[in-house]
Design goal:
about 110 residues, elongated, single chain, about 0% strand
């Protein structure tokens, strides 16, 4: 609203609008890829855990709930692998966590 005020200097208005535009573009990118990322991650986690990913409901809330369930199982599985000294299983889990991080990267990510 401040940018609509008549007394705001043009340079300040342009800077604020540029920042707003960038933030909206990032939000749009996150929103656009959210379901796809969650479906991919849920499938990868389900495969790793020898589980099945619930995909009947593709609403973001349902996909996030399924992701939380699978991640809780992943934590339990990682604990068991550490206790058993199963380094191969631990590495598989870490590999998926790294892949998950890459899937969530934005186009403006510096890495």
């Amino acid at each position: 609203m401040r940018n609509a005020a008549p007394g705001v200097p043009d340079a300040e208005r342009a800077s604020a609008l540029g920042l707003s535009s960038m933030l909206l573009a990032v939000a749009a990118e996150v929103w656009d890829g959210a379901a796809q990322n969650l479906v991919q991650e849920n499938r990868a986690l389900a495969t790793l855990l020898r589980d099945t990913a619930a995909e009947a409901d593709l609403r973001l809330s349902a996909l996030r709930n399924e992701n939380a369930r699978l991640r809780a199982r992943l934590i339990e599985d990682h604990i068991l692998a550490e206790e058993a000294g199963d380094t191969e299983r631990q590495e598989a889990i870490w590999a998926e966590l790294r892949a998950s991080t890459v899937r969530r990267m934005l186009s403006i990510s510096p890495v």
